[in-house]
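A reminder from the course coordinator: this example appears on the midterm review sheet, so study it carefully.

Given structure:
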């Protein structure tokens, strides 16, 4: 049916928005260049929220060349189409003045379409691969911060800022320039700010291995299960309120002798802990908030015998597949990672079945969803030391 007058331009803003919101992100970005009216519609807050809600939830993966990519999450995830469905987000490889590859930026976090990468200790990149914008967070200077361990990336509602929480070791120096003592502090690095902010004293225990595990975020709180400085000494989880920016310790779920191999995830709107027993039993504990100041408690929600049982797979520690991280794949399915980086298990809780797969790329268990929001902090001057990011053509 032909339209009279000016064609599609004769449509009202609401009708145009209903059409444009269904387009892929790349098409929306091109439509912004058509005219001022389309740009105004596609940059409005209601349009951006509606468009983001339509974007599929994906899991970030890393290719053999360390390129950051994404694979759609679904209950029918299949290794056969892993490569075909994967799309590239950015290339964090670092190159020297001669153009030769020298290193790569480690991926740390994903939130609201933003990625955080570590170029070196104290220097972190925040980028939006959809709009191809990137800049650095405030830099933690090597003096006094001799070491830095990123803990988690979050949105601070009172200020409207995106912040990276870091555990930093501060060296105190004598007049002669010699190190005299060391203290630990938590810092926050806010996107768009020029200087880091010291938040509070941190535990003096050295962070384990590479530092803190990637936290699980739920209802304005970041949770670390066991890879935090106080885990061994207290046997508790660590929680951080992202609005109040305060810490507290809380009880872990009673997962028995599998506690060292349990992992946290958000499932059906609740914080859960997942643990497997002998690779066949799947236990899911849910955190219950008693309310009115009552203590939080863990309740066993599911104990499922998976059929068929997954094939045995030994870890470097001589035990079966140890769940190290997990995310919801939607539709009552959970994607679980173990000791082998490219091997995952897909647990279907509805059908009570398990499928083991070896993906073509390394899963990160970080979730990603596109965002067309153009944040003002991307216009801030960059650190001269910051290496450029590459985006797909």
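Designed residues:
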């Amino acid at each position: 049916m032909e339209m009279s007058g000016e064609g599609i331009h004769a449509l009202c803003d609401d009708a145009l928005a209903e059409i444009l919101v269904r387009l892929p992100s790349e098409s929306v970005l091109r439509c912004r260049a058509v005219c001022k009216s389309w740009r105004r519609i596609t940059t409005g807050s209601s349009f951006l929220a509606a468009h983001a809600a339509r974007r599929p939830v994906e899991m970030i993966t890393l290719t053999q060349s360390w390129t950051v990519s994404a694979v759609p999450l679904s209950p029918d995830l299949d290794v056969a189409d892993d490569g075909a469905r994967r799309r590239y987000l950015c290339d964090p490889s670092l190159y020297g003045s001669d153009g030769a590859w020298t290193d790569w930026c480690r991926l740390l976090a994903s939130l609201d379409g933003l990625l955080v990468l570590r170029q070196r200790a104290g220097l972190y990149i925040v980028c939006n691969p959809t709009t191809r914008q990137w800049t650095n967070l405030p830099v933690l200077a090597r003096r006094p911060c001799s070491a830095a361990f990123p803990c988690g990336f979050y949105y601070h509602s009172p200020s409207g800022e995106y912040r990276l929480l870091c555990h930093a070791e501060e060296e105190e120096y004598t007049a002669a320039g010699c190190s005299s003592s060391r203290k630990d502090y938590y810092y926050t690095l806010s996107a768009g700010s020029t200087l880091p902010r010291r938040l509070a004293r941190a535990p003096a225990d050295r962070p384990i291995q590479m530092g803190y595990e990637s936290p699980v975020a739920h209802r304005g709180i970041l949770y670390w299960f066991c890879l935090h400085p106080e885990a061994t000494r207290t046997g508790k989880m660590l929680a951080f309120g992202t609005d109040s920016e305060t810490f507290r310790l809380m009880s872990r779920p009673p997962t028995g002798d599998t506690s060292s191999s349990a992992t946290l995830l958000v499932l059906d709107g609740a914080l859960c802990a997942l643990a497997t027993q002998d690779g066949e039993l799947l236990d899911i504990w849910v955190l219950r908030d008693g309310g009115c100041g009552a203590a939080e408690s863990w309740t066993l929600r599911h104990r499922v015998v998976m059929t068929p049982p997954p094939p045995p797979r030994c870890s470097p520690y001589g035990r079966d597949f140890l769940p190290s991280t997990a995310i919801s794949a939607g539709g009552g399915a959970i994607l679980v990672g173990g000791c082998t980086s490219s091997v995952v298990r897909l647990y279907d809780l509805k059908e009570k079945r398990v499928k083991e797969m070896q993906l073509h790329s390394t899963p990160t268990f970080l979730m990603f969803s596109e965002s067309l929001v153009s944040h003002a902090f991307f216009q801030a001057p960059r650190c001269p030391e910051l290496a450029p990011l590459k985006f797909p053509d």
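Confidence is low (pLDDT under 50) at residues 314-319. The helical segments are 13-20, 25-31, 36-42, 45-54, 82-85, 231-234.
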